């Protein structure tokens, strides 16, 4: 069962939302609705599900309804229509007591504008959620300290929010949410004020949380790299509606429309694309053949290396043309001349991890799956072609040197 | 457009309250006076220097040396100027009323902030309480609570509670939305939200409200002194009425010093500096709570000790709360009743002052519930027709013999209005006649109609009265009356006859008994038919003797006395002992 | 430790001021009275219905129909109840004082917010102004500004300016730092920052302050009436001193309605809704400015015209402004004075209601300046000792014969405290005895000391009083008194004798005349020696008749009448015509 | 003359800054100072200059003093020590009137936390600076509308800030600053809440302003790509001090220390590095030689292509080994066999523009300067090696295939 399920969720700002809701149902656009009725469509009939342990990233234009959507997940904003099921229970129809229970035990939120309590010290801010739950003072101080340490603000416990820099304040907000150890973390541009180093630490922290604690995280960001790095799935919003949902790669590689394409075009593809995206079919040979056959094969397919695999396609090594002709002269077997130190990658490794090796290796690196089977090889041209954003990368084909 | 009889309503309302809520008022009064007395005796118990030292120490702990210095100078000055004792009295009063204001005002302010309907309901009420002049409700307050410190406290609270409520409300409403959201996102209960977020952030405003509450309740001390609350206020008032500005200033200075001290200490107690405020609010709530409990306990104790002296066993006295419901304090009946209480040595009985209306209202209420009640009564009165009542025997004759009702005219009426004079002189009827009119009125008939009805039904009698009297031609005539049911009946009958049979234009002047006599004596009114004699009106009769003409009785066989419903098992005033 | 002669200093200070700053005070007084008169004559000029319609229209434009409805009902009610004219007078007073408070308070609040030093200097001053009882400075105010509306306005401003200053300060201080920074980053001048950012954001707080200022200045109208400011306040005071709760309530209601109207209209004028506030502040400033200029102009005009019309021929009426300075409206002296005005057909003379204190203050002022003045006076009074005064002849006998002062005890005092009862019954002295005590007090002696001195000097008389009365052993006794000089003197003497000779412990309850009688009648006080009869206290006497015991007179040969300084060239009331 | 000159600027937060200042002068660290005196060193003796028309980017860790530094430039924060010269005049010693003049006419600021006036509509917010200057209502409304349109918020003039999304609010703050048309724009994380598309628009807007109006811009950002894209120079801060100042490339390529290196390591190098960074020395031959010489040359240097250049090293074409041996057989000259369509790049082109061509060309692309001279060639391996962040790229050397 998905942990969060959103069905036809809609929010309209204004005094008479139902009127605007009807217009919306008739398919009138957000802009027209605003111009005719002065009502703003915040979120427009959005549906999706989030599985437990998933990091669900929401991106989209400024004003497209991301914050509104996330705030409706814990009903800080009352939806105009639709349902939000948290663990199967509809949060919209809960009474105050139940809602409180959910907010206390299951969700915590990091706010876009921090929303720290100015009258409380940092540590008291971080303790807030625990205090609300009634955790006893010692335990909650400990947890809060841990949480503060996690975000790198140890030692500033007794300062007040207005004595901190913007990024520090944001981290306090983060620590406050983390201290609560909720099942679901709602993070509204939670890293926007952080520098790259701390941001990366925080991202790692999130990934850690997800893996070790199976936390579910809903994450709003404007940073594509960030979305790619931590997102299991990404939803792209525009004018209150979701334009596309999918894994980062799906969205990068198969943008649903021009808008999505424009949106993602600036991304650093080397962090998205993996070895499996750029690998080509290798020419292989089994060790029971002789060097002559190998040379012939190279010549036929116009390559200068062959990969030696056993019957289950396990990689044994590589054969270069020079070595093969040498072997013919000296009468040695393929096993004897096989180059054993072929660089090897796993198919899910990102391109940026490949650069160094691929740039310097003499023999194209091999891509080998979990089971040790050879799946493909990495040619420099293919890497560069993939980075250029051209779509030809997935076709396998020989290097035409 | 006829004037709305608002004044009448209010007076009736007050009368009604004073009869029906007496228990509540007594309870309130004993609690408040208990608290004030507890504080005051505490303050008087400790020697001056000890209080001064304690307060300086507190000031130093809470504030900085500046506050301590001010405390020292201020208190020593009060001491030196000789206002120590009254200042302590005033402190007790002001502490009590500020405490009540804050304890009631904070929750009300919070309620206003939470709910627009509550706010809309309370705001005009606050305006009312703050601007209705204290003088207006001081008199009823005396009726309800007696003289002294209690009505003073109540008046102070009424006047000074407003800023606390208003500014608490405003402060909470100004807390930024995003912080409220943050608090809610963590699942705060409304209480948690309130105590952890809203109140701390509204604190500067709330403290401004409390400051104003303290200031205003101190500004009431002089007015409170006018109804007997002792303290510096009384000193000020006394000095000032002697045109002794300097002394007044000195006493006023004591008030000012007290105000500043109370204000600064309370502000510091909560902590106005956000940086130190942290636990402040909770700490203040605790301290406040403890103080309230302690004082309430002291008050209850004080009360119980006083009360224990009171009641014994299940006598009649107990069933009616040792009270006899009386009428207007000026009436002779009341005097006679007081005399009766004295004659029969009914020491712990009290005679409740009120009005004829209030008395019958109380009787009606008790009768319907078949509860015991003792009232002061007189015949003729419609109540004897309507209810089954009996007079208590009066073996000592405190209420005297039966009375007559006389007609009294101003001097020279016989010259000026001979027709009227002749009719008035002849006017004479019986208690049963009168009761017929009275019962009609008491059942809701307009007095004029009731009188007209009687005149129609008794044409023969009336013909007798006016036989041979030449009618006037629209001359004016002023009849005075006092608003007792019997007098309303008789006066309206007289009026009716004068108008319908004799062509006069009659104005009725309903006044108090004193002014009624004064009016006749001064010639402001022409006549009245309401002179109960020889008991009820005797003082006035004697006082104005010579300034009026007594036309003799118009009704005999009246009676005064204590009256009970006949279902009560008591027969003589002696049984009340 | 010797007592600091603070009282002496203050009195000297006040004297010095009244001599040296007279010009300034006169200027102030003429400005203020000009403004009040301008507003007031405007309000009286327009017909009632027009004002009502105009205000309803304004209310509808500013608020919604609710406010308009309230305006309609409230104003029609005032009209119907017959308080239209006094309400307009009060409006003029309150408008003036609120206006002054806001016009002075806003800049001061802003200054406080801008500068911690200013704040630290002003805060205790505000505390002082708000808690120093108005009664204390009313007397100097009369000395400086004369009787009437001017000292009323000044007292109102002193009392009510504080909330505006405090809350403006607080509101500005609460504006978030980042917005201040933003404003500064664009190079705002302090003025721009103030008007564009600080004031709009502080507006809810400022308006709460102004609300309180309006409320407080309305709560002063009754006190202002004690020094002769006419209006509903005077109606309230009059009703209340006549124990007429209902009427008092009606008049009070007029005050409340006025308060709510003023408050709501002013709040709406500025606009409490942020969304519509935009130009509101500037608009309000403009309107406010225009109103001030208009009123100031009207005031100057009014003033000039009066000055021109004023001093023609030298009739006595003109020299004293056709005014006779009276005392508390409830007193019998006032009634007698009114009767005198009628008897002598002094049609265009007015009798100024106020208090005994205010009267003596006015007399003192006039006497020092050797100016003409006519007051209502009575003997015994220390003023006859202190100043050279004379009664105006009263050929028509309007003031009646001389009065006696009676001793009044509660019922059953003879049983409960026979010793005290017997002494009180015997207590009897002469006007000259009394004046000896009075002059001592008026010269600054503590009343207890003055009484003790007299008792010592007149041991023989006192011995007579207490001969054969068995002393008590510390029983408590409560004497009520009203703060007239004569009563302070007599009551303290009685107290002294009761304590020093008879071993009682006496508490003095200093109250207003009404509560004094109510207290005796209700048994809250044991006795009093202050019943002036048959004129002054007659109404109370009659009202409570039967609930107290009259122990007969303790002093005879008092006198009532119009009193003038002997340097005045007038001898009979008839000369006033 | 530089338009902004900052000399030894220092800010210490706390009640007795001078004491802490002395400690700082003794070389005590920020951390120690905080621990011993509870004073926070916001900015630590920073000096730099900014030229007119420059976009000066400030980056650094969260809490490193960026906001404090920028706020001292217009003296919103009173410096503890040091000087700030704006157009040669020391702003620290100005009186209130002069300071106001400078703030009105020369500088405008965009705030990290937006700082919009909640009681004013959007358009009134944008007008604020102009109103302060006393611009007449019509003119200022026009300018404000233009400015709003620039940031893409046309049509929302009459809303209030709390009705806008975070990014919209940020843009209002931007519009407010732009409307003032100041010489110097101080922008504190001004784009942090913007989505990539709008952010790019805004960046272009800034670049435009800089070029057409010669505005000077001080820009704080946490986004390295942004810094690279718009920054003329970048200053990197840490613990209140500036660690390194330089052009984006300088910093990427020669980080001053480990910290800087870590800070920039995640950057997408293909947007920083240019063709000139990765080009290798080409083997050239002049057209007056014969094919035999060419073949010999290829053999000696182990390459399979030569570049034909004239005497002034102007690129004429390329010679492949195959063609050369063919030419020997057929007796043709080098000019005859030269391949004319060699892909050509300019040295300042970024790597990401090279990918497509480089991945598919048979002959390594050439790098040619303004004057048409051949400067180097682009080898696939070198491109990949550069992207891997290894520092060997600037050494020229043959490809060892
Ligand atoms: N008012 C203040 N009082 C005390 N310390 C402060 C104050 N303002 C800032 N600081 C401290 O000064 C240091 C620098 O803060 P600053 O806001 O300049 O950082 P920043 O570089 O802008 O960080 P960010 O990227 O997180 O916005 C921080 O350590 C912060 O805690
Ligand atoms: N309280 C409100 N009243 C009216 N409209 C609102 C309100 N809050 C948000 N909106 C509108 O709803 C839309 C969505 O806002 P939302 O804050 O969800 O955007 P967002 O996707 O979070 O944008 P950003 O990335 O800029 O934060 C916007 O058009 C905004 O103007
Ligand atoms: Mg958002
Ligand atoms: Mg910052």
Automatic annotation (TrEMBL), chains A, D:
It catalyses: a quaternary ammonium(out) + ATP + H2O = a quaternary ammonium(in) + ADP + phosphate + H(+). One of its GO terms (molecular function) is ATP hydrolysis activity. One of its GO terms (biological process) is amino acid transport. It comes from the Bacteria. Its EC number is 7.6.2.9. It is found in: Cell inner membrane. Signal peptide: none annotated. Its main location: membrane. Residues 278-334, 338-396 form the CBS domain. One of its GO terms (cellular component) is plasma membrane. It is a peripheral membrane protein. It holds the Pfam family ABC_tran. Residues 28-264 form the ABC transporter domain. Keywords: Amino-acid transport, ATP-binding, CBS domain, Cell inner membrane, Cell membrane, Membrane, Nucleotide-binding, Transport. Belongs to the ABC transporter superfamily. This is Quaternary amine transport ATP-binding protein. The lineage of its organism: Bacteria, Bacillati, Bacillota, Bacilli, Bacillales.
Automatic annotation (TrEMBL), chains B, C:
GO terms for molecular function: amine transmembrane transporter activity; carnitine transmembrane transporter activity. SUPFAM superfamilies: MetI-like, Periplasmic binding protein-like II. It comes from the Bacteria. The keyword Cell membrane applies. GO terms for cellular component: ATP-binding cassette (ABC) transporter complex. Pfam families: BPD_transp_1, OpuAC. Gene3D superfamilies: Dipeptide-binding Protein, Domain 3, Glycine betaine-binding periplasmic protein, domain 2, MetI-like. InterPro entries: ABC_Gly_betaine_transp_sub-bd, MetI-like, MetI-like_sf. GO terms for biological process: choline transport; glycine betaine transport. Residues 87-266 form the ABC transmembrane type-1 domain. It is a multi-pass membrane protein. The keyword Metal-binding does not apply. It is found in: Cell membrane; Membrane. The chain crosses the membrane at residues 27-60, 67-84, 90-113, 134-161, 206-229, 284-301. Keywords: Cell membrane, Membrane, Transmembrane, Transmembrane helix, Transport. In the C-terminal section; belongs to the OsmX family. Belongs to the binding-protein-dependent transport system permease family. This is ABC transporter permease subunit.
